[in-house]
Amino acid sequence: MRAPIADLPIVFDNVSVVADAVIILDRVTLTLSSGTPTVFIGPNGCGKTTLLRTAMGLSAPSAGRITWGGREVVPPIRRAILFQRPAMLRRSVGANIRFALGAAGIPRAQHNSRVRELLGLVGLEHMTDRPARRLSGGEQQRLALARALARDPAVLFLDEATASLDPAATKAMEDLIRAVSHRGIKLVMSTHDLGEARRLAGEIVLLHRGRVIESSEASSFFNTPQTDEAKKFIAGELLI
After folding, report:
1. E strand segments, 7-115
2. Domain ranges of the chain
3. Below-70 pLDDT ranges, the chain
4. What is the mean pLDDT of the chain?
5. How do strand 203-208 and strand 211-217 relate by DSSP bridges?
6. Quick check: 47 and 207 in contact, CB under 8 A?
7. What CATH superfamily classification does 10-87+150-234 receive?
8. How many CB atoms lie within 10 A of CB 19?
9. How far apart are CA 36 and CA 187, in angstroms?
């Protein structure tokens, strides 16, 4: 499942997103390169989800320029995104995966083996015939991850993927996130949980009011933050 990285780097060049006269992203300049996971952190409403959606190609910038692997127009064939509350199709666990494989253009002759592989990866191989909507929240999130991986993405975006999960389900998802990263897939994720950011991130990007406040390796960010906003956020203080 190691995917090519033709969509990388993803480069934001002075990108702004404005909706209903509200500035959501404000002149963001950022490069997302291959390697360890990049984790977006920041207070609620800081622009994390919009930044992920824009990097995925789901939202267009109001100003500025985005390139994927040096190109401005790239179909999101090798990109996938997982939201906090993914929708489950009204069909079995296995059929959810088969739908994703079909949408990704995977030949039907490969579907059975890929379903077994993907469900085995996320620990749901014993639930192939169970209705997807009867799974627990953590199981649904793992199924959603398997569906996202069906297209062999080079880049996987995770938007608060553990925010609604209990501690056991959160640990299971974090273990899977590490396993996916070790397969060579670039992970770009948002979280409100500083503990999770410490555990998973190779790079931290702190956002506030739609702007990139600080971006650095995770160890440097947590040990020697450079901005007052980063110091306050790490200390649990409110950013205003």
Report:
1. 10-19, 22-32, 38-41, 63-68, 79-82
2. 10-87+150-234
3. 1-5
4. 93
5. antiparallel
6. yes
7. P-loop containing nucleotide triphosphate hydrolases (3.40.50.300)
8. 11
9. 7
